[in-house]
Write a structure and sequence with these properties.
The complex is a heterotrimer of chains A (545), B (98) and C (232).
Chain A (H helix, E strand, L loop, with lengths): L20 H5 L4 H29 L10 H20 L2 H14 L8 H23 L13 H5 L4 H28 L12 H33 L12 H35 L6 H14 L15 H29 L8 H24 L1 H7 L3 H31 L5 H27 L14 H31 L53
Helix pairs in contact in A: 2-3, 2-4, 2-5, 2-16, 4-7, 4-8, 4-14, 5-7, 7-8, 8-9, 8-10, 9-10, 9-11, 9-12, 9-14, 10-11, 11-12, 12-14, 12-15, 14-15, 15-16
Chain B lengths: L7 H21 L7 H21 L8 H26 L8
Chain C lengths: L21 H36 L1 H9 L3 H26 L3 H31 L11 H6 L6 H37 L9 H25 L8
The chains are: A mainly alpha (545), B mainly alpha (98), C mainly alpha (232).
């Protein structure tokens, strides 16, 4: 259903339908809300990134010579809090999910458009609270807020940061609620569950985690705030309290939270690979079911963050075993993506480059997770840079690359413009190189014993630290490039056709950018998902700038 | 949610049942049943909660399968948190215990 | 709703444009409220978990501290909430049947019962405050410890009271929200916004109210009834 490429400004779409600040700040259009989120999370990505660069600067030399130790504690704490709660957790669901979920199922909007806007405002309010906490002294407890330091000893803005994350949590919960109801109740006629895009399955699973896990974080933060403000003793060992109780409650959410961060990214990869291999996904139902399996199993493993904290060794063994089990569904996905590419007709556009990066880096991150799940090994590498490298491989090498791949893949749909392909590929390469240079040395550092969250270290670790810092500057360049050329493309980019990639999915059957109500007529679906082999690759599939 | 109309008589009957069970649970707590006290108290509470869910909240009459799935999931997840956490506490001594 | 054949309503003034018809809208709203209640169950779970592990570890302190709670007032409060659940269920019925005056009366009754609950809770808290059982600076359970038939540790008792205030406080906060919601509902009902064609808010806020009642149904035995055997 390709239409002639009509210049963007002549056709009414969700971007030009109304102008003015009010039309954006009071919008209930899921596509506009997605863009509001895009601006917000990009802003916080910058803030979190600045903290990261300061950390890496300090770690250039073994001595603690850039900042004081207390300040360093604040740097890594706020890097973690900002990146996790204000960038990673919202990122794909709030930007790509908000934009695409209704379109992929043939709906006019999410089930609760006003609640969607409220979700964004909650994130913004939480963000303002966090910025204020940072500006007036910051927090130094680590993003994990462990008690009794956070409740009884720290002199920093624990209460404010805790309340900020509480509010951000509700933003996340309401988005999850919206997605579940939408996916259940608003699918187009003929769109059965087994015809849903895998992106939808991934977001459905993510939403379940958001709904069931985030409230526990909320109550935990409330208890910390109450304890700190009212001098209670629930987590204070000198008064009969148990610090591990905080950790149990905290990790009950925060472990599934990492699946909130990776599942949507996996959903993106599941859309990109079939498109750029021109093949239906191998094992569609396995990929779909593995998303649900990850959502459920992810709730069974949280105490693997507490192996050396003093928990019962028998409970630790149970959690260790469960942690091995949770790796299986992720592995199933990796095998299926690889099998999808086998004998496919591969094109190396930017989204596909990010997908390749994702598969390799996520696999490394995931496998090193298994090292950590082994009790004996964990005793040696826990709280070292090995852990730091492990989770950055998944969160940055996995989740962020999936996010960038998705942004490139759907940018023509969102903006009506093509990004410059050569720059896209260059940036992907720079990101990949910068990422590995930053984080691979950290595996080695952790293995040879450098602890995390220390602002000085023995001089024999310096070479690896210098490599890591150098890598981080390259990575920063890699991240800046897309920000620049995406903005550039909104003015000067080639106008995009409806379906530049020849991709399957209802969203590609609408205009680029789409009209406010997404479709001129509600589509009726009579085909199975991913009919690759029946969709022609348009000759205009851009391969040059 | 459902189209079924429930008679007010049923509501009043449930109301009386709930009040009676409240009195019963308060009274039984004063009788020594050993470890059974806790079990009985929670059992009565569960009967009360079930009756509120089924009748006052209409779940018995709804045609929506998802409502029951949501309730069951939430209860299951809560039990997950409670039971798995308990594995750590049953095999670890409280501070200050000899 | 009634015996009339199912019609696809697309001209109901309450229909929002992204829904195909009222059935879909009603369905979605109800599903959304149940999902929200599921999140509330998980929210309270955190405190139930804390309660569970400390009761397991510090049973004696929990049992003795529990006896200092006002059993008659707690029981009355439980009954008050049960009555309010009845009025809520009847109000949904009244809305279904288009009986506006009855609906308003029942909603106001619900409100009042909710306020009674909060009032009694306030009285109980004041009692605890006067007995120095509020954790914090003036916490002092020496009297309770002296009168206890079994030796108890004051610090461990403090944990019971911390959880008591956290749990009943969080519950009371939800009650206050409920009272606010029902005030809005009463106003809208009085304006005639609800009838057989549209009563979704009454139904869904009713679900919320029942949920808050159910939380109390569990809090009552867990906090008040740990050990009420008469001392011998």
């Amino acid at each position: 259903m390709a239409t002639a490429v009509i210049p963007v400004r002549e056709r009414e779409n969700y971007l030009n339908k109304e102008y003015g600040v009010r039309s954006w700040l009071l919008t209930t259009d899921h596509k506009r809300i997605a863009l509001l989120y895009l601006i917000t999370i990009t802003f916080f990505f910058f803030i979190g990134g600045i903290f990261a660069l300061l950390i890496r600067l300090e770690l250039l030399t073994p001595a603690g010579d850039l900042v004081q130790s207390d300040t360093y504690n604040k740097l890594f704490t706020m890097h973690g809090q900002v990146m996790i709660f204000f960038f990673l957790i919202p990122s794909i669901p709030a930007v790509l999910g908000n934009f695409l979920v209704p379109m992929m199922i043939g709906a006019k909007d999410l089930a609760f458009p006003k609640l969607n806007l409220l979700s964004w405002y909650l994130l913004v309010i939480a963000g303002v609270m966090m910025l204020h906490a940072i500006a007036t002294g910051g927090v130094d407890t680590g993003w994990t807020f462990y008690t009794p330091f956070s409740t009884s000893f720290s002199n920093t803005k624990v209460i404010e940061a805790g309340l900020s994350i509480f509010v951000a949590g509700f933003s996340s919960i309401l988005t999850g609620l919206n997605f579940v109801v939408t996916i259940h109740r608003m699918r187009a006629p003929g769109l059965t569950w087994s015809r849903l895009p895998l992106f939808i399955w991934a977001h459905y699973a993510t939403s379940i985690i958001q709904l069931l896990g985030t409230p526990v974080l909320a109550i935990t933060l409330v208890l910390v705030v109450l304890e700190r403000a009212l001098n209670l003793g629930i987590f204070d060992p000198t008064r009969g309290g148990d610090p591990l109780l905080f950790q149990h409650l905290f990790w009950f959410y925060s472990h599934p939270a990492v699946y909130i961060m990776i599942l949507p990214s996996m959903g993106v990869i599941s859309e990109i690979i079939p498109c750029f291999a021109r093949k239906r996904p191998f094992g569609y139902s396995f990929i779909a079911m593995s998303s649900l399996a990850i959502a459920v199993f992810g709730f069974l493993v949280w105490a693997h963050h507490m192996f050396v904290a003093g928990m019962s060794i028998y409970a630790a063994m149970i959690f260790s075993l469960l942690s091995y089990a949770v790796a299986v569904p992720s592995a199933i996905k990796v095998f299926n993506w690889t099998a999808t590419m086998y004998k496919g007709s591969i094109r190396f556009n930017t989204p596909m480059l990010y997908a390749f990066g994702f598969i390799g880096l996520f696999t490394m991150g995931g496998l090193t997770g298994l090292f950590l799940a082994a009790l004996g090994l964990d005793v040696h590498v826990t709280d070292t840079y090995f852990v730091v490298a492990h989770f950055h491989y998944i969160m940055v090498g996995g989740a962020v690359m999936g996010y960038l791949g998705g942004m490139h893949f759907w940018w023509p749909k969102i903006s009506g413009r093509m990004y410059p392909e050569a720059w896209g590929r260059l940036a992907a390469l720079i990101v990949f190189i910068g990422f590995n240079l930053t984080f691979f040395p950290q595996f080695v550092l952790g293995y040879v014993g450098m602890p995390r969250r220390y602002w000085q270290y023995p001089s024999e670790f310096q070479v690896l630290n210098v490599l890591s810092t150098a890598g981080s500057t390259i990575l920063a360049v890699g991240y800046l490039l897309p920000m620049i050329y995406f903005l550039w493309s909104m003015r000067y980019g080639k106008p995009a056709p409806d379906n530049p990639w020849g991709a399957a999915g209802l969203e590609w059957m609408s205009a680029s950018p789409p009209p406010t109500y997404n479709f001129d007529e509600t589509p009726v679906v009579t085909w199975e998902a991913y009919p690759y082999g029946e969709i022609a690759v348009p000759e205009e599939a851009p391969v040059e700038r | 949610m459902s189209e079924h109309t429930v008679s007010s008589k049923l509501y009043y009957a449930i109301w009386i049942l709930l009040l009676v069970l409240t009195v019963v649970t308060a009274w039984i707590a004063t009788i020594d049943l050993g470890p059974l006290n806790t079990i009985v108290a929670l059992a009565i509470a569960t009967v009360k909660a079930t009756v509120v869910v089924l009748f006052f909240m209409h779940v018995k009459y709804t045609s929506e399968k998802m409502t029951k799935v949501v309730i069951a999931s939430a209860i299951f997840w809560m039990l997950l948190l409670l039971m798995l956490s308990l594995t750590d506490y049953t095999w670890r001594l409280a501070p200050g215990t000899n | 709703m009634s015996d009339s054949p199912v019609t696809i309503e697309t001209h109901n003034p309450a229909l929002q444009h992204h829904f195909a018809d009222m059935e879909q809208q009603r369905n979605a709203a109800s599903f959304g409220m149940w999902l929200f209640l599921a999140t509330e169950i998980m929210f309270f779970s955190g405190m139930f978990c804390a309660y569970l592990v400390y009761r397991y570890w510090y049973f004696n302190e929990f049992a003795v501290s529990s006896t200092t709670l006002n059993l008659p007032l707690g029981t009355v409060n439980t009954a008050v909430l049960i009555c309010s659940s009845l009025t809520v269920a009847l109000s949904v019925q009244a809305a279904q049947q288009g009986k506006r005056k009855l609906l308003v009366t029942l909603l106001v009754l619900t409100l009042l019962l909710g306020l009674v609950f909060l009032g009694i809770k306030g009285v109980e808290w004041k009692e605890k405050f006067d007995e120095h059982h509020v954790p914090g600076y003036s916490f002092d359970v020496s009297k309770m410890a002296k009168e206890s038939p079994i030796p108890i540790d004051g610090q461990r008792a403090q944990i019971f009271f911390s959880l008591y205030f956290a749990m009943t406080g969080m519950h009371a906060l939800h009650m206050i929200v409920g009272v606010g919601l029902f005030t809005w509902l009463t106003y809208r009902a009085w304006k005639g916004a609800f009838g057989p064609g549209y009563y979704t808010p009454v139904e869904n806020f009713g679900l919320y109210w029942h949920f808050v009642d159910i939380v109390w149904i569990y809090l009552f035995p867990l906090l008040y009834l740990i050990d009420r055997k008469p001392l011998h």
